[in-house]
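Hi R.,

Here's the chain you asked about this morning:
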Amino acid sequence: MRKYILSQTIYLLLFILFITCKAAAQPVCQIQHFSAYNGLAQRTVTNIVQDSKGLIWFSTWNGLNKFDGYTFKNYKAFPGDGSNLTSNRLSSITQTQTCDIWCQTYDLRVYLFDTRSEKFIDVLRPYENQSKQTYAVRTIYTLPKGISWILCEQEAFRIDELSCKAGEGITLYSPEQKNLKGSHIITVHQDSEGDEWILTDKGISIIGKKKIESDIPFKSIKENNGKIYLISDDNQLVIYNPQTQQLQFNEAPFLSSNTINSMQNLGKDSIGLCTDEGLYIFFCRRRQIQTYRSSYFNQTFSQSIIRIQRSSRRIMDVCRYPGSSKVQPGYRR
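And the predicted structure, written out as tokens:
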């Protein structure tokens, strides 16, 4: 009887061990390779976007691809098909709030791909025909309220994503039009009240209720706890108070020669300043700054911080050059 119980126990243990080993052998994720042989239009993919419906879009050197999880569908211009697309070589794509796709081509043109009609729309063509001028597109910003900004070399277009398909809702912004402070736009931001901030090389232009009386150029903008935080060209942290419409300059805990590479929103009360000399976390309510220099990470690496993002409640991922690290605010080695 004891031998029988012992043998059954051994068999049970072996079975559990087999199941455990088999489960451990399962891959963490499945990797599937796609190429021109199984549906992708071209092997050179320049950008990937997943829309709100779960569809994945690829910009390639041979048109726009849509992947539904099973098959690819290619959209491009063919000879004689009447398409507005002048080049099938796409450099970048951006999704709009209306689930359409902005497509930038290598000849510096921009087209709106209507996902319902599955056609490319040259939204700037009517304006160009009227002004008898063509515009080279640098980049595109899409805002949450359904407005897109198409940035060109010396000017920009503000686009209403719904009405632009009918040739309406397109406004040119430039210093010559007296509706933009500078000809070079650095970035575009929409705040929580829907106002649009256009950061230029000659100061900030605001479309909305807020006002700002300053020609100081800024290179980065974030909103935290009802206030706007800006980084100036000389690497100062500046706070805009919407109630007083005034700018407050904060003395930085580092030399002006230290370059701020980026500014990241880390929560309701903290902003990360990624610099060439380490990471600085600014606590908005207390107006205090916590410093993480090379000694916190690793003495053998550079202090230059490129960007930071929060991965959990207390842990943040830091992208350095070279390498990466994790930071737990408040914890000091």
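Residues 2-6, 8-13 have pLDDT under 50 and may be disordered.

Let me know if you need anything else.
M.
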